[in-house]
Specification:
The protein has 15 helices and eight strands. By secondary structure, the protein is of the alpha+beta class. It folds into three domains: 40-194, no CATH class; 224-278, SH3 type barrels; 285-369, 2-Layer Sandwich (Alpha-Beta Plaits). The radius of gyration is 43 Å and the shape is rod-shaped.
Amino acid sequence: MDLLNAQLPGAEAASTGIGAIGRRVTDWLVRSHLGSLTAPGPFDIMWWQWIALAAAVAVSWWGGRLLGAITRGVLRRVSSRTQTAWDDRLFDTLGPPLGVAWTLALFAALGHSIGLPDAGERVIAHAVRGAWVATIFWGLWRLVNVFVEFTLSRPWAIGSPSARHLLTIGSNLAKGAIAALGSLALLAAFGYPVTTVLAGLGIGGLALAFGAQKTVENLFGSMALAVDQPFRVGDFVKVEEFVGTVEDIGLRSTRFRTLDRTLISIPNGKLADQRLESFTVRDRMRLATTIGVEYGTTGAQMQQVLDGFERVLRQHPKVWPDAVVVKFKEFGASSLDVEIMAWFAVPTWADFQVCRQEVLLGFMQVVEQAGASFAFPTRTVHLVSHTPAGEAGAA
């Protein structure tokens, strides 16, 4: 061995610090008259080690793909036994990162067995560590897509364009956060100090939180509206002191078109705390009124009117038959009052107006057929003549 080292003076220097495995390979190459491969190359790494690294990369790549395919097959067989579909989608999405993880594990083992110098070992260690960090955050990035796809398939999200819009924005924000954290973790894996960066981000985030307080409040208000869904675009609603149609649900505010055709915009943060009443989601609409007939109506006529009113309501095809109220209510100031209350199973206010008109016309026919009349506000004035006593005696 001393003779060989004397013949190749660079062999001893090149093999310094390469470990026992590297020395054995170097000695074997020298004995096999392949000493030229023990000459130092770039970064003081011997040529045979460069060749070994290339072979390790190839073996790790193909081995990682094979092991990743086997792992995905096992996981798919497990997920096929469940009733849900999201786990199948999850394993399919994590397949590529899983294959890369196997590749990195194999390369870390093979690269360590090559016996690189200390400097080379550190470079390989940093590279593998950085690749591990990138793979983990790549998997998290893809998990966001799975979560969004699964959430968008839920019934409450399918019928809500605003919810889909907010989920898309939320996924973009989540991906941005993953990219930012992944970049910091990658810098830390390569040995760069990130404490100053984190401190700067903390100060900047605090300033942003104070400056964008209302914006963040409106953003969370938009999320609350998307989850609760008190109304949708096109719904006719009542918000505190006004009524109108929902025209647009934005990320910051919601716009309503009032009956006067004016446009009202309310920030979502404030809107989420207000009392909201939706007329569109009603399963039926109520008719509640009081009809007065004149005091000259007899008892028989009143009974005929009551029966006729109830018949008109129950014969209407849209009336809800479980609750129809037709009752003689009271003796009013100028009329005999009949209380009317019924519900119509119609979806829109326009349909309800048609039903109400049909029923009121039927009430008019009933009153006419009973020989009665509708009352109207009247006032009877009694004039009392008062004659003074002196004038009465003179007369």
